[in-house]
Amino acid sequence: MENSMGQIADAFRHAFRDFVTDGVPASGKNNPAKSEIRPIGQMIEQAIGDGTGNVDAKVEAEREAREQAVSDLEAADAALSARIDAVQGAQRKEPVTFATTGNITLSGSQTIDGVGTGNGQRGLVMNQTNAAQNGIYVTNSSGAWTRATDADTEAELLGAMVYVTGGAVNGGLAFGLATKEPIVVGTTDLLFVQTSGDPEGLAGAVSDLEDAVTASTDEIETARRGTQTLASGIEVAIPGRALRRLKEAVSDPLTQYVGIVAIGDSITWGSGASNPGTSTPRDGTLADPRANYDSPNFVNLLKRYLQETYRSGPGSSESIGNWPASPSGQSDALYQKISAVYPRYGKFTVSNLGATAPISNQQDSRSPTYMVLGLPHNIPGQDYGHQIAFPFTGSMFTLSVRITQADLSMFFDVLVNDVVVQTVNAQEGNNGLVVDAGNFDQQIPITLPAMVHDGVVKIRTKRNGLSGNRYLNVTALRIPRRLSVRNQGINGATTVSYLANNMAGNPNGHGVAVPASDRFVFIQLGVNDRGRGVRPNGVNQFYENLNALLDNAALDSKEVILMISNPVENEDPATYSFTQQEVRNVIYQVGRERDVDVIDNYAIFRGMDFEEYTTDGLHPNDLGHSMIAENVIRAIEGA
């Protein structure tokens, strides 16, 4: 500033030198002359203008820097996306049992790369003197080999990639076709090159690229939010991945189960809100009473919002319960909505594993999805026919089928992450199925042996020794989409007491606050950690205790969101060894160090009197709880 505050103060003292003595108006003195006052006003106007200009310039510079960061990150993300598109655009072929290392005769039984070829094996031929002969073949022990039916046209060969399961030289490697279009099979030279050397083959390359794209996307999202901080009003201190993943999980029709747990003290429990119910007797464990579900505390308000927004409408239901060890109240809410999806498009991939009959895709208004996916299998010697693959989180789903004629249906395997977990008999007379051409919704419930998180489920049609032509006609995949929200707030809890009494390794026998099935954990602690009774005293110890809580095994592989409690009125140093603002500082610090989301429920009460939003200078009243709930909701929706 051209005029400093010191200069302005000196001018004031000079102008009022005869009017004020020691801060008290002097009687009988004249007001200062206008000629002395006017320059002071001009100096103040100029100082304000200079200050505003400096602030505006800083804000503009910060905005431009963030926009440049977003632009740079988006460019890097585009490059990564181009790479992954190229890899994912490849046609992954069914694995081959061998790959050639030199020119061979394309007929009869022989030994290639240490692998003896029999009849009907898939093999990769890639070293022929006449390169037009290269390709994927099916062996014939007594005659000429034939090109595999999934690799005998230009469309099937372009971008083809295949994994080799056996062989001294090529076993465990993946190869891709480098030849560009146009391709005339049998005329165009086909060049195969190694694409991977790890046992996962192409999947490993795709996984690495996907991780890179995810990380890049997260950086872009964080940078974007930084440019919106002043305008958004959402008090999210550190926007990380957990809130975004929670938003994705509650929205995704293929996420069957979403589990949310709120950990905290009396504010999370619901103290201060109306009609909370009894809170005694209590001993600081999960056996303590819980607040009534009807009480408008912020966790209950969040529950109702999530239900109304994501689990309402036809096919929805609500179940309210309590933690088994708790004598009263309702800690748990389970909301369900059954969604019927057609398993062909979007995130579903349907592929041919050996059956030559084409997949049919028919419209029919009698189907729950108005479509019928026909998976015929007409090769008795080939066990598997077709496969439906999709990403999945959960433990159950239902397959709806149609059986039109006796002895036409077959079996199917259910795989989780490429491991068979169940074989299902989908023939009439099994699993309640009957021959009924008019019933497009015969349901086969599937319960997986364990909860799956971000896995891949596959349904493979299977002959299982059956003869003749077989079919599996699928009309829908039904997902009972369940959303669980648990309030595990414990009155009087500190990070120390919560860790000792309610987390993994506690001796109380009342369970662990975060069940293995639940993934998203909101933690709001720290108010009681300020007390002199927590030893040793001090903010550094709170930092230590919060990190110890976060390191507990119950939070392994969980998506954690830290929250900062509202301001409190009593900050008496004789009672509290540090302030609520210092609690806030530690949570910010831990969030940054751990790359954990932080929702700031402290800042939203800035400028308000304690009696406006609390009942006692500490516990939020109904208004305070509603403001916290709204802040959490906005954080989720803004992720």
Q: How does this model look, in words?
A:
This protein is α+β, with helices and mostly antiparallel strands. It folds into four domains: 34-88 and 210-232, no CATH class; 91-199, no CATH class; 236-338 and 484-637, Rossmann fold (3-Layer(aba) Sandwich); 341-480, Jelly Rolls. Helices cover 28% and strands 26% of the residues. The chain has 13 helices and 27 strands. The longest helix has 55 residues, at 34-88. It is elongated and about 95 Å long. The two termini are 39 Å apart. The model is unreliable at 19-31, 83-87, 198-210 and 218-234 (pLDDT under 50). Residues 271-291 are annotated as: Disordered. Residues 468-625 form the SGNH hydrolase-type esterase domain. It comes from Aquamicrobium terrae. Residues 271-282 have a biased composition (Polar residues).
Write the layout of secondary structure elements.
Blueprint: H1 5-15, E1 20-21, E2 24-25, H2 34-88, E3 91-92, E4 98-99, E5 111-112, E6 115-116, E7 122-125, E8 135-138, E9 146-147, H3 154-157, E10 160-163, E11 174-177, E12 192-196, H4 202-227, H5 229-232, E13 236-238, H6 242-251, E14 257-264, H7 266-269, H8 298-310, E15 316-321, E16 332-341, E17 349-352, E18 360-363, E19 371-377, E20 384-402, E21 411-416, E22 419-425, E23 442-462, E24 470-489, H9 495-502, E25 520-524, H10 539-550, E26 559-564, H11 580-594, E27 597-600, H12 610-613, H13 622-637
Parallel strand pairs: 3-10, 4-7, 14-24, 14-25, 25-26, 26-27
Antiparallel strand pairs: 1-2, 5-6, 7-8, 8-9, 10-11, 11-12, 13-27, 15-16, 16-24, 17-20, 18-19, 19-24, 20-23, 20-24, 21-22, 21-23
